[in-house]
Write a structure and sequence with these properties.
By secondary structure, the chain is an alpha/beta fold. The chain is built from nine helices and ten strands. A five-stranded mixed β-sheet has the order 3-2-1-4-5, sandwiched between helices. β2 and β3 form a beta hairpin. It is globular and about 65 Å long. The structure holds 5'-O-[(R)-(carboxyoxy)(hydroxy)phosphoryl]adenosine and zinc ion. 5'-O-[(R)-(carboxyoxy)(hydroxy)phosphoryl]adenosine binds next to α4 and α5.
Length: 340
Amino acid sequence: MNPQKIYILGIESSCDDTSAAILCNGKVLSNVVASQKIHEQYGGVVPELASRAHQQNIVPVIDQAIKQAGINKKDLSAIAFTQGPGLMGSLLVGTSFAKSLALALDIPLIDVNHMQAHILAHFIEEDDFDKPEFPFLAMTISGGHTQIVKVTDHFDMEVIGETIDDAVGEAFDKSAKILGLPYPGGPLIDQYAQLGNPKAFPFPKPKVGDLNFSFSGLKTAVLYFIQKMVKENPDFIEENRDDICASLQYTIINILIDKLKKASKQTGIKRIAIGGGVSANSGIRKALKEGEHKYGWETFVPKFEYTTDNAAMIGIVGHLKFLKEDFTDMNVVAKARIKF
Ligand code: KG4
Ligand code: ZN
C-alpha cells in the first residue's frame, strides 16, 4: 500500500484538550485544538467534565480540521487516535469516534501511545526544524508524566528514568495553586519567573537515585515555606511573586538538567530532545540550549504548538505506522495506562 499522498486524520482526547489534525505525507495541513476552560475554576482537570466536553467538541473539531486542510473526508488514508495513557472517560470519546469513522469510511485504524507521540512530534515534516538522528534521549515532561526515554528507532523506545510520584507539570501547577494562581499555573509561573531572581529563595532538591525523579517533596516544601512566610507577612506572596516563581522554576530546571546530564553520561548519547507541555517552558528551553556549549549536546525542541497536547503528534505516529502497515482491528480498546 503506497499511494502518492497519505492523508492521516489524528485524534487526541487523552486529557482536557480535544484535538484533530490532518497530515499529508507527514506535513501538518491543520491542527485544531479545543482547550477546556471549564477546569480552571476547579484548580485541576475534573475527569467527568472532561469527557463531557470532549463529547461536545469532537464533531466540530474534526469537521474544522478537515475543512482547514482543504480536503474531503473521502481523501483520508487512515485514522489515528490516542489509545492511552490518559483519563478513561476522555479516551473513550476519541477511541469510539475514531472507530466509527474508520468503519464508515472503510479505512485503516491506527492506535497511538500518547507518550510515544510526544516524542515522535519531532518527526513532523517542518521546513525549519531538524529531526533528531537515532539514537537520542527524549525527556517527556508534562502534566501527567516525567520520563527519560532512550530512543533507538521510531518504535524502539526504552524508559530509563521516570517520576516516582508527581509529574513535573504537577509540581508547576500545584505550586501555582499554593500561590493562588489559576489552573494550569505552569505557563504563569514561567511568565512571572522571567521577572524575578532565581536565587532569592532556595528550595530543596529531592534525593532520588538513578535517573528517576520525585516532585511531591518540592510541592510540600513550597507549601510549608509559603505558610510560614505568610504568617509573618500576609502580603508575602504579592510582594515576592516574581522571585518565588523564578526560584521555583530554577529548582525544577536544575532537577531536570541534572538527570539529563546523568542520562547522557550513562548512555553516551549527546542528542537530546524534549517533548510534552512543560517543554514550552522558557527556562528549560534556555537551559537546554546552554547544554549545547556546556556539555556538547545537540538539542531538539519541538515547535510550540506541538509541545502541549495536540493531534498533529498523533497524526505523525499514524503516518509512521501507516508506512509499516501497522494497523489495529476494530475491537481495540482505550487504555488508561500503557507501557511502550
Ligand atoms: O502535555 P500537556 O499539554 O498535557 C499532559 O499530557 O499533561 O502538559 C500540560 C502541562 C501542565 O502541567 C502545564 O502547566 C504545563 O504543561 N505547562 C508549562 C508551560 N506550559 C505548559 N509548565 C511550565 N512552563 C510552561 N511554559
Ligand atoms: Zn501530553
